[in-house]
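@here heads up, posting the sequence + SMILES for the flavin-adenine dinucleotide run so it's all in one place. Ping me if the SMILES looks off, I pulled it from an old spreadsheet.
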Amino acid sequence: MRLQTLRGLLPLALAACGSGSPHDTAAPAADADVIVIGGGLAGMTAARAAREAGASVILVERQPELGGSARFAGSWLAAGTEAQAALGVEDSPEQALAEWAEATGGDPDDPVVEAFLEASAGALAEAVALSGEPVSAVTADADCGTTARKHWVDAADLAGTLAAAVDAPWTGWTATALDLEASPLGVTVEPTAGGEARVLHAPAVVVAAGGFARNLDAVLAQDPWLADADPVPEAAPANTGAWLSLADGLAWQNEGRYGIYVHSTPDFRPGFEGEALLVLGTERSLIVDASGRRVADESLSLTFDLAPVLAELDDPRLFALFPASVWPDVRATVPGYDWADPAEPEHLSGGELVDAGAAWFFDDLDRAAEVLGIDGATLAATVARYDELAHAGEDADMGKAPEDLVPFDDDRLGVVPLVPGIAKSFTGLSVDERARVRDAAGAVVPGLYAAGESVGMLGTPAVGTGFAGSATAVFRLGEVAGAEAAAFAAE
Ligand SMILES: Cc1cc2nc3c(=O)[nH]c(=O)nc-3n(C[C@H](O)[C@H](O)[C@H](O)COP(=O)(O)OP(=O)(O)OC[C@H]3O[C@@H](n4cnc5c(N)ncnc54)[C@H](O)[C@@H]3O)c2cc1C
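bot reply: prediction finished. Complex structure tokens:
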């Protein structure tokens, strides 16, 4: 009998087995071999792996539909792949390991990293096969190292395939508590829309409930410097950390490592205030702080590496200054999850930002300095130096690539204020290489597994400040967690 048809009977069944009754000494019956909490990329992958290992699975997802952020995760890091070989890109897990520290700020000596990179090509091949579409591109981006190893996958099709394979998911239910003393383990679930709570039991539980970018209190607890910088979320609405209560008594790792971009300006559209508008082309701007000084190689705005620079500033205001020759190309875009209407244009121009009061176009630097509240002489000196570097074709100060050095030449410029955008969790529950969750004392909790952003992607502090293309880690650890949970349940 399919689980859906059982659902109406569950309260009776649970009452009959005395779940939660103080007079009942018998162990509660298991409702499944494995309970997976969260139906994003990690949870759906874990459910698939557990089922393929022969386990019965209940997947609990608080949203009305499965998927989480899976359909957005288009870029995947992998080393030594068929797609790279076809393009003549020489790469290997060893080479990726050699670039790991530079790309992620993490420790390449952690055996988890080596195992991940070894497995990355296989994980990518599997994901690509599930998506039904070939890798569309392989790009070289600093957040994946210096070699072209960011693979572009049809994430929407992959998400659809994984969702369709989950049998009778418990969508619209939120897991609110874990009973780790119970045997089998207990998971309290409540209808997300409100209603009576139930307790489900299984020998093994996988927590795959995503990150918490939209839970500002929780992020600030780890990254307090953000409080003054007016951050915006760059993660999907589901990332509220609705699972953090499950983490009580469990060990946490890589604290303070949140993937934060600095390439957004606050959205101004009615109903979207406080959301992120991603400004495209910031690598070709000159980014200055409130004192009028240049802060970094502007291409760091495309990675998570500009946030640490911002964190060090006393005044966290940053401005992207675009030469007049670049300004017509400047676009702002809304993250895919935020489009209100498919008929809306995908991009807003710099001019539209100016019309909305979200950006400025100035005819001279003095006026810019006055409006921005920056010392005019300092700003003029910064722009003059930048022009000098651009004309020389070499950024002797910050090392930006010559093609991104565009001189201002005249005094006209467009200006967009930049705020940090909280995108990804590289911190989370502490797990071992088998996705087993550790308790506060560091001991493995029997039967409890975790994967995905809930463990900070890779599940080790060796992820450092993080990397793009981390979907590979989410997918792979999801598989490990599902298979391990099924094996534990079978024991
Ligand atoms: C616009 C956008 C673009 C992105 N692009 C990329 C990219 O190109 N490459 C890349 O690697 N990554 C990218 N990411 C990030 C990537 O999508 C995520 O890191 C990844 O999908 C996380 O998967 P997950 O399963 O761990 O979490 P999620 O996808 O967040 O899934 C967790 C699920 O758990 C559910 N849940 C939470 N709490 C509970 C609870 N208590 N009970 C029941 N259910 C619960 C949530 O509703 C959610 O559906 C992008 C993200 C966004 C938003």
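MO: The longest helix spans residues 111-131.
MO: One more: DSSP finds 13 helices and 23 strands in the chain.
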